[in-house]
Please model this.
Amino acid sequence: MFASIEFYAGDPILGLMDKYNADSRADKVNLGVGVYYDEAGKLPVLECVKTAEERIADPISPRPYLPMAGLPGHRKGCQELLFGKDAPVLQENRVATIATIGGSGALKVGAEFINKWFPHAKCYVSDPTWGNHIAIFEGSDVEVGKYPYYDNATSSVKFDEMLAFFKQLNKDDVVLLHPCCHNPTGMDLTQEQWDQVLTVVKERGLIAFMDIAYQGFGEDMDSDAYPIRKGVEMGLPMFVSNSYSKNLSLYGERVGGLSVVCPSEEEAARVFGQLNFTVRQIYSSPPTHGGRIVDIVMNDEQLHEQWVGEVYAMRDRIKAMRSKLKSVLEAKVPGRNFDYLTRQNGMFSFTGLTPEQVERLQSEFAIYMVSNSRMCVAGLNENNVDYVANAMAEVLAN
Ligand code: LMR
Model:
């Protein structure tokens, strides 16, 4: 019966995590999956989340079905974080937002919506992008193409090529954009470059799909949302998927959101209805626990402030690790430029190592990074950064 079922080779990122977990070497280092580990190499539980958990647990609460769109407080939390607390677009009720099962769930619901209502649209992703972007859109029968983004030779964005590419796309084609902390390269656009991109998106009638999974890890909560807010200001309709996996350190709770910015309240209401229907068709409604944490932290002024501070502390530790790795590498590998490490934002660094060098790091030094050379800098700490720098120097030299 199952003779024709094809073998699944596994996911390049999640599969790496399994391999790392199975590795018994004591000095192993996980720089693969996009997860923040603290200075002690542990996955943190944020203080604001602990407080929210205590409130949920006392008294132990019932678990009803949530609405298809999730908790109203979760949805409001997403909206205010993305668009700004007093954003006119929210007061005008022009944003249809649902709570989703992580950022991936938001992308999936968005991809299904696009396939149904814009059946001729192609979705263009950056070259390179997070591998699951392609898998999710293709999995919803949306044809996927790539736009030029990163130049390995100069470790920078191929901005002119990217813009020229957008200028020849067709109306209703989707461009998937990373507002901050580009995954996998860590290399972001400047605000001036965003202005130019959004102008072309508007002129060509393209659909901007902003995927923001690392808000707060780049510059700050507001600056990281610049492209989203600027697009709204320019009157662009837009999809925004957001994730709380990283900035609430709630990976396994699967909490995120999908927001669709519409030209009018009436359109937003219809879009909201269709998003609900899509959810019903796939998984009916989201789970309760993570949604309750989001609701509490996002809507309690004090907890929210505490949360922002905790995110910035994670951001700053990553930045410190970038500088440290850069200075050790500069000393060990003279003549090679490591400036890219501090020009990139967020958790990831595209190191430019070859797949063979990445493989050597894994087999000889138990250092795990993605074969495209993406390193999760958030896996570095004072105890392992020299070890990693030494190993990188070694594979670069021989
Ligand atoms: C990553 O890029 O490593 C994360 O977004 C985790 C994932 O699901 O791939």
In short: The radius of gyration is 21 Å.
